[in-house]
Amino acid sequence: MNIVLGVSGSIAAYKSPDLVRRLREAGHEVRVVMSRGGMSFVTPLTLQAVSGYPVVYDLLDPAHEAGMGHIELARWADLILIAPASANLISRLAAGSAEDLLSAIVLATEKPVMLAPGMNRLMWANPFVQRNIAALSDANIDILTPGSGAQACGEVGLGRMPEPLEIRDHVTAFFQELENHAGKIDEDRGPLFGKKVVITAGPTVEEIDPVRYISNYSSGKMGYALANVAKNLGAEVQLVSGPVALPSPADVNLIAVKSADEMMQAVKQACNGADLFIAAAAVADYRVADRATEKIKKRDGSDELLLKLTKNPDILATIAKGPARPTLCVGFAAETNDIEENAKSKLQRKNVDMICLNDVSGGKVFGAADNEMLLFKRDGSITPIAKADKRIVAEKIFDAILELFSQSDRDIVNNS
Ligand code: PMT
Known about the structure:
By secondary structure, the protein is α/β, with parallel strands linked by helices. It folds into two domains: 182 residues, 3-Layer(aba) Sandwich (Rossmann fold); 203 residues, 3-Layer(aba) Sandwich (Rossmann fold).
């Protein structure tokens, strides 16, 4: 972590070089900022030598303000640690003063601030100092309790700056706590928190004329169940849906489309920066080549009407083979015959990470409340999902997707 170490005017400043060493040993970057008082006890040169960075102390130094000025230092820091914090500096901080660089940095930061006071026992016990300490503590500044014992002034009592190793341990515990807290928040938010997921659902509708169309029996139940599960796992979900009679899922961005062409455009846009694309929609492979602008009339003298069809774009393959491919692309295969061969071939042909195969022979699956599946992955493994409500099936599909995400994270680590 990045630590700005403030050193103010207390005899305990002689321990600051050791503190810098201990913090660096613990893996932190340390930049030292001194008050004028601090420089009377230890030289900037010493602290520069142990920290590896120039030491700064002037608020109005043009050279310094153009480089790592007080605002930049306040931004750079993950923690502002002032050790020792003298009675004088504590009073300036409690008053909200910005008269020197160190107090200006404390005013200009949103980062945590920690003070290790160091002063004579009577100064520490003084009600003004205690009032200032209470005010800083109320402002969420972390105050380390000073140690007790023989003091440099010859007196014995409470007021000694904690030893560098104690301060380092306090800093370590503090960062650990922050990390645990952040981890806990992420856990609470779900394993897909921070991930953008795009899902297609339902049928597409390819118009023949203003009153007729070609479509299929997809109800959207499978795709909507996936969207709900993804949202509950913490993802930001965009659901690109063909016309269905289902309520829009809460907290999901629903993009309603009709034709495959419209779905293609919406998916392309939604997949910008996406982490996962799941194509659960039953997209018409063909559309009418010349959609009539007026209702086609029944013609006397002929029992046939021929419709010329033209191929629709393959949405899944376009995204999975495209330059902005999400980390994972998952396709479906709705098959009636040679089901496993067809699923394996789609896995390769469409360049996807997983194919969810459903056997739709005999009118199964389309519109039904339940489904059963085989999941085909690129490593050759096949995972069955027993017949269950589509919501349960969707949860099982996401178990496999979470495994694929952790696999891809491991691959990134191994390749870096
Ligand atoms: O909506 P329900 O009633 O709940 O039914 C669920 C379902 C049967 C629709 C669903 O489980 C399913 O199987 N969806 C995919 C149906 C399909 O179109 O399968 P396919 O084998 O024709 O296509 C393979 C994959 O390519 C699919 O992921 C499909 O979305 C995608 N595709 C296909 C054609 C195309 N032009 N663009 C595509 O993206």
